[in-house]
Amino acid sequence: MVNLTNFSERKVVMNILKHLDRRGELPLGDDIADFNLKNLRIGLKIDGFSAYNSKLPWSKWSDLGWKAVTATVSDCIVKGSRPIALVASIGSPTKEGQQIIEDMVEGIVEACRYYNVPYLGGDTNASKEDVWIDVAVISVFETKPLPRNGARPGNIVLATGEYGLTGSAFHAYYANLTHIMENYPRMLEYSARPRVSLNLLEVLKSNRDCFTASMDVSDGLAFTLGEVAKASKVDIYVDKVLLPREVYSYSEKAGINPFSLAFYGGEEYGAVLAVKEKCLNHVISELERRGIKVSVYGKVRKGEGQVWFKGKTLTCIGWDHFSKNNIIRKII
Q1: Which of these, 31, 50, 137, lies nearest to 87 by C-alpha position?
Q2: What does the radius of gyration of the chain's CA atoms come to, in whole angstroms?
């Protein structure tokens, strides 16, 4: 048995990877697993979390169900696959458990309708204390799978989505500043019900030869950039990070660096993309035409897996669900 008190989540994952079979084109440990089924390439993904780590005070139980679906769909989309079926497993203490589960299922149903994914069932469980949810999705690849380890020197790095909004929300929670969150409705919305753009799949499909690597941003922007850099054995130099005005406003009130909120927030469900330089203008135009915001720009250079910003290397850490003292809470 693995003693989780002596391991970080990353170490546990690396230990598990030793036992997995690779059946597809994506490397072990990528956002999803893939395998061939007759003439189809199938994607398989499961993701989840506990209320302790992911439910903020202003979120409803239905929001937690929504977020779990979004997290899983995001991993599928960023690899180039379309979700076609979903199941969910929910655990709740028996006290008020029925109402909690019903509310979470409501959020699951709403998200499945939003992403046009059939909800086919799942499982319910009694837990001792915390509420938890796991969502599993089957997807079908509509283009060649896009790994996280394909970034090459000369590529341009883009990140879709907006960063700092959920980081600000988590910071407000940890720093006991929730009373000022009513001034930032977009932060409340982004942290409660994040959304993935299905249009990203269309851009990846129609411009597949332009992309060399991708990874969804769920454990923090710095962590995601670091994972792409390490997997690809390159360095990434971040040139520009465009932050929403609310992040600057909140950071000034809270006395924190706004870029810390952007790099170490997590649960944005944007995408880090490595793009061939010759395709850059076209790809940005295609993303913007489909309503997908690009807010981070960088360059890939020879290196050893580091990420640079303003002349310094970033600490590329992310959420660690096995740590009672999650270091992310200290940074943001």
Answers
A1: 137
A2: 19
Cα first-last separation, the chain: 33
Is 85 strand, coil or helix?
strand
Structure tokens at 192: 């409660």
State residue 1's pLDDT score.
Answer: 38
Please identify which residue in the block is written with the tokens 């956002």: 31
- How do residues 38-67 score in pLDDT, each as one tens digit? 889 999 999 999 998 889 999 999 999 999
User: Is the sign of the CA dihedral 12, 15, 19, 22 positive or negative?
Assistant: positive
pLDDT of 321 reads 54
> Which residue is it, tokens 């409803």?
60
pLDDT tens for 66-121 read 999 999 999 999 999 999 999 999 999 977 778 999 999 999 999 999 999 999 99
Beta bridge partners of 309: 238, 312
Q: Reading across the β-sheet that carries 270-275, which strands appear in turn?
A: 211-217, 270-275, 156-160, 294-302, 234-241, 307-309, 312-313
Whole-number Å distance between alpha carbons of 26 and 48: 21
Integer CA distances (angstroms), 66 to 60, 72, 153, in order: 10, 10, 38
Indicate the length of the chain as a whole number. Answer: 332
Confidence category of residue 319, pLDDT binned at 50, 70, 90? low
**Cα–Cα distance between 195 and 291 in angstroms, integer?**
13
Which phi and psi (to 5°) does residue 179 adopt?
-65, -20
